[in-house]
Each structure stands twice: as structure tokens, then as C-alpha cells.
Amino acid sequence: MLELIPLFMFAVVCLALMAGYPVAFTLAGVALIFAAGGIVLGHFDANLLLTMPDRLFGTMSNITLIAVPLFVLMGVMLEKSRLAEELLENMAKLSGSLPGGLGIAVVIVGMLLAASTGIVGATVVTMGLMSLPTMLKRGYSPSFATGTICATGTLGQIIPPSIALVLLGDTLSTAYQKAQLSAGVFNPKPVSVGDLFVGALVPGLLLVIFYLLYVYFTAKLKPELAPANQDVEEVDRGKILLSLAPPILLIVLVLGSITSGVATPTEAAAVGALGATVLAFLKGQLSKARLAEVCHSTTLVTAMVFTILVGASIFSLVFRGFGGEELIERWFSELGGNVALAVLIVMVLIFLLGFILDFIEITFVVVPIIGPVLLAMGVDPIWLGVMIAINLQTSFLTPPFGFALFYLRGVAPESVRTGEIYRGVIPFIVLQLALLLALAVWPELATYLPEAIKADK
Q: What pLDDT does residue 239 have?
């Protein structure tokens, strides 16, 4: 019975979160309550808690995580300075004559916005406020319009550079080193955030292509769902492309500097934040009040991420102190070395947890527990990271508990029924599951590019 204490602790955390308690304080509070009970009953070593200051100092001084506030600043600046809104308007003009032209514009701009923010809620809300009224006004089916916006908003999980991949990459790097050390490899190979960015590039672009093809052919075969724009005006394509170039160039520059090895993710994030600020200034959108608003939003998001990280560190320490890691390892060892079954179990677990936990909690709490075990079984860390990211993306989109659905419901007009939002996302869920299946069959979709880049260096 005592060996199941870690599972009871995890269950209590899930129940407390479902009850609406703050994530960071729930993780730390539940862990410390269980630790105190364990100390009193003689089932927990109190000396383990003395290591907490060193663990927290190591976490807060992690230079990779400095990329988080910088990427947040980049995304918020593009959003608050109306650069993203201008990008959508220009893309809509450029693709206006195509079947589903506005939907195609939403997917492309949402991809760029998702890449710059990496936060599902921010992207869904922003795209919902900017594009949903226009799509409905042009006669788009509410289910088709809301499904496109929701699915596009979740691209922040997989399109690099994104905060989700930064946090996931850092966590997997630690888990991979731990797995190698436990296997007796005392010169472990590093796995960086940049490696995960490169690994996610092809699957992410494939998913965007799937979305674009679905929107185009649905509009072509069922024009009543996405009527063509009858008022297509003559536009200066050269001028529009010129206006699109700066924000696109900024994102390409950030990602290119990472994949080429010229800059670390943290350095590239700094360039991105500065570039977004310069773009806002050149557009005349950088006032003192706007800069204060951007800094305030960035500080709030950064404080949330790092507070959760502190709570997750306390939780994982106590979880291991009660033998939780050994319990997980024993369960997986009973599978008889069946790696595919182990990965399937973990993917189903993460998918279900995605209904009640955000990607930050799953990255900081769940991945450090299951990551070392799977990686010790020979699972490729980059492939695992991409699979987890797409899995969470699918979870956030799946009715009735998907976070993206709740975010869009909050900003959608009352005339749009919740059932229409649910119906609209189903085709996109099928596309994401198809990509997961393709990755399971052909892991090279995620692993080939990182290996090729390393081989060239």
C-alpha cells in the first residue's frame, strides 16, 4: 500500500486542479503535505527537502529558460502592436480569389502567430477576435470557421520557435542525460532545444499543409461552408508582399539562426524580441503605454511559467522521495521490453491529462517522471518530444474538455453554438491523429533533419 503513495499524491493534485486551485501552489502544497505526513510516519527522508534550494537555484539559473520571457515578449509585441492583425488583412487580400481564401489566410497567419507566441490560449483568443467576425460576415459556416481558428491556434505546440518546445526540450535534455547515466554512459550525448526545434520543423509544416489542403478542398467541394469572396478588389501584390516580409523574415531569421547553429535558442529569442520591438517602432505602433502593456503581459506569463516550474520541482522531488520513479520503472519493466506498448500507454496518459493540465504542468511534472524510463528503453528523445507536442496539441483540441475550445468559446459571439465549435474541430483532430500515426510509422520525419544537420557540422 505504501508504494502507491506517489500515485495517490498525483491523483490528489489532479483533483485539486480540477477544483480550480492555482497550479503552482497546488503542486507544491500537496507535495509538502504528503512529505510532512511521510516524515511523521517515518516513510519519508526529511533530508531530501534540504536539497530543494540547490535544485531551485539550478532551475532559475538555467540559461536555456531565459528564452521563455524573450519569446513571450516577441509574440506579445507582434500582437499588441497590431502587426498580426495587419498580417491577416494582407494575407486575406492576397488569397481572396482562392476557394476558402480567408480560411487559408487564417491558417498561415495563425501559424506565424503560433510560432512567435507558442501559447495556445493567446493564439486562439487573438485569432478569434481578429478573424471570426470577418469569417462569419462573409458567410462562412460557424463550425468551419471556429474549427479552423481552434486548430490553427494549437499550432503553437509544434511550430518552432515556441515556448512549448523550449520547455519540453530543456526537460527532455535533463531526462536524456539521466537515462544515459543510469545506463552507465558517463559521457552522455547532449540533446538541445535547438535539436527539438529542428525535429519539429518537418512535422509542423506537414500539419500546416494538411490544414491548408483541407480548407482549400472543403471550400472548393462545399462552397456553402466557405463562400468565395465576391468583392475581390484589384490589389498591388508587390506592395502586400513587401508588407508581409518583415514579420515573416523575423521569424525565419530567429529559426534559421537556431537551426544553422549560429545562435542558441536564448540568443535567437533575444534577436526576435528586439526585432519585434523595432518592427513596432517602424510601424509607428510603439508608444510608452504600449511598451508598458507589453512588458506587463510578458512579466505575467513569465512569472506564471517559473512559479509553476518551482512548484513542479518540489512535487517531483517528493514524488521521487516516495519511490514514485522506481514504481514507474517497475511497471514498464513488467511490459517485457515492449517499447511500442510503453510509448502507447504514455501517449494515452498524456492525452487524457491534457484535458485537465496545461502543457506547462505536463512538461514539468509528467515528462520528468516518464521521460527517463522511456529514454532508457531506447526511445529517441527528439522523436519522443515531437510526439508529445503533437499529442498535447490534439488533446487541447478534443471535445468536450479541450482548452482551445474553451478559449474560443469565451470570445465567440453568442450566436455561435458550442456544438458547432465541437463539430468544426473534428476534421482537424483526424488530421493530427494521421500525423501522429505517420510519425509512429516513420520516425525519420522527426529525426532525419537533426541528424543530417549534426552530420554536416
A: 66
